[in-house]
Amino acid sequence: MRLSPFVFCLGLAASTLPVAVIGQRPDDQIAPKSMELLKQGETLLSQGKFIEADDALETALIVDPKNRAAFVAMARVSIKQKLYGQAIRLSNKALLLEPTDRDALAVQGEAMVELGALPRAKENLTKLQKLCGNTGCPQVATLSTAIARGPALAAAKTPEVPKKN
């Protein structure tokens, strides 16, 4: 009886110690099923099947929420569907997982250009230029081209319709 409180405290202290979990994956390892669904979604995107691509990519994220490439691919689907705000939010989620993700920065910059937020897109371009250094990378060229082209949504003009009284 005299040892019961001591054993209880010892058990409580032992239960708070961290223990390695055998079945846990490292942070940088993505589930193979998620990668398979990502490839399927990218194939559907290239075929122009946006809804099916979105479904496959969402499933990839359900399988493994740390799949940055799936967030970026979903942002590309959103851009194709002219949902630029959603594309920015999805690329933000990818950037929360990895702040130096070049693809996410480029896709986010393209969506910003389409919305007319050129100063913020130029900030993404400078981040990309710093990340790529002197070697240059295709993301810099893509975003530079998009900035030079300008916003398609803001530049679109509505047809002239004569007013009726």
Write a structural description:
This protein has 165 residues and is mainly alpha-helical. The protein has a single domain, classed as Tetratricopeptide repeat domain (Serine Threonine Protein Phosphatase 5, Tetratricopeptide repeat, Alpha Horseshoe), CATH 1.25.40. 68% of the residues lie in helices and 0% in strands. Helix 5 (84-97) runs antiparallel to helix 6 (102-115).
Q: Strands, helices and their partners?
A:
Layout: H1 4-15, H2 32-46, H3 50-63, H4 68-80, H5 84-97, H6 102-115, H7 118-132, H8 138-149, H9 152-155
Helix pairs in contact: 2-3, 2-4, 3-4, 4-5, 4-6, 5-6, 6-7, 6-8, 7-8
- Low-confidence residue ranges: none
Oligomer, anyone?
A: single chain
Question: Structural class per helix/strand content?
Answer: mainly alpha
Q: Over the alpha carbons, how many angstroms does the gyration radius reach?
A: 24 Å
Shape: elongated
- How many angstroms does the end-to-end distance come to? 97 Å
Order of helices and strands: HHHHHHHHH
| Helix content percent band | 55-70%
And the CATH topology?
A: Serine Threonine Protein Phosphatase 5, Tetratricopeptide repeat
Q: Could you report the average pLDDT, rounded to the nearest whole number?
A: 83
Please indicate the percent range of residues in DSSP E strands (runs of 2 or more).
under 5%
CATH homologous superfamily annotation: Tetratricopeptide repeat domain
> How many individual helices?
9
CATH class: Mainly Alpha
User: How many separate domains make up the residues?
Assistant: 1
